[in-house]
Amino acid sequence: MQKQTVAFSRDSSNLFFHILTKCNLSCSHCYINKDQHGADTLDIATIEAWLDLFATKASSTNLIFLGGEPTLHPDLALAVKAAKKLGFKSITIDTNGYLFHDILDKISSDDIDFLSFSLDGATPGTNDTVRGQGSYKKVLEGIEKAVGKGFSCSMIYTVSERNLHEMKQMPELVRNLGIKRFFIQVIGIRGASAGHPLQVSRKAWLDTIPETAEKIAGQGIIVTYPKVFLDPEDKFECAGNVAENFFVFPNGRVYQCPICEDFPLHSYEIRQNRLVPMPRLNEKDLFGLNIPEGCVMNKLLQPQNLAYDTAGRPEYRIACCMLKEEIMPSRIAL
């Protein structure tokens, strides 16, 4: 197996496109904030026009359709086909597994690169407490159906105090699911979780996540997880300065840092189908600040995961939330 930190690059970008904020579930850690992101469902003409705003770099841009639950959108299949015509580097649909509007019958495995399913517990008891009754069963059924139709599937597990204890059970659960990638995410203090901090401690993260990630990768599955805590020799870099990531919401706001999404600090707005830079002060003005704690946004908005010595110096630095570790198995699952 080969473990590496995925370096930021100006030559590759990510477009996280929230085509609606509506969802059939009410996950306790959902980051959607309709006061800041809007409650509209974009029509297909608007989706196509907004995709076109990023088309000049389509060949180097990874596109992810999100919600809410994107399969609730009746024209998701048309949106996928429009993106395919524009030549995006990759196309992913993030889903909770309910796969509404018979989406698997309206697109093929040639249209998208991945269907990514969210599961937040190794057992129904834990997952359904976080995501909603019956969602565990739906996810596993959805993966089985999608894999059976030839789609490449991945899984997303958002780690919090509510489900960390089941993380070590995940290698056994995913062993025979047929997924090709496994993404571990750290819970953000935003959206529904803003008033109920559920982030795990540095020790708990480091004691559990790297070891579990290696066990899953040992089964031929590519594993990606956030760096979170920088090693002493690591250089801090903010993705806002050295990469291109765009988080687009139905009200037209376009962020470059996901931690900022609870606040009107967005870098751009889409107005009349044009990408308009926002006046100062916005998130871009904060990206260049250099502090001992590492990530400025983390220090400002979710400092609970920091610790200081008796002299008031930070004991460690927090990485940019977009910095990932990736484990490539020696044997890739087919």
Features:
13-stranded mixed sheet; TIM Barrel; 13 strands; 334 residues; globular; alpha/beta
Task: Write structural notes for this entry.
By secondary structure, the protein is α/β, with parallel strands linked by helices. It has one domain (2-328): TIM Barrel, CATH 3.20.20.70. It contains 11 helices and 13 strands. A 13-stranded mixed sheet has the order 1-13-8-7-6-5-4-3-2-9-10-11-12. Strand 9 (244-248) and strand 10 form a beta hairpin. Helix 2 packs parallel to helix 3 (76-86). The longest helix is centred in the middle third of the chain and has 16 residues, at 202-217. The model has no long low-confidence stretch (mean pLDDT 94).
Question: Could you give the topology of this structure?
Answer:
Blueprint: E1 2-6, E2 13-18, H1 34-37, H2 44-53, E3 61-66, H3 76-86, E4 90-95, H4 103-106, E5 114-118, H5 124-131, H6 135-148, E6 153-159, H7 170-174, E7 181-186, H8 202-217, E8 222-226, H9 239-242, E9 244-248, E10 253-255, E11 268-271, E12 274-277, H10 284-287, H11 296-301, E13 324-328
Parallel strand pairs: 2-3, 2-9, 3-4, 4-5, 5-6, 6-7, 7-8
Antiparallel strand pairs: 1-13, 8-13, 9-10, 10-11, 11-12
Helix pairs in contact: 2-3
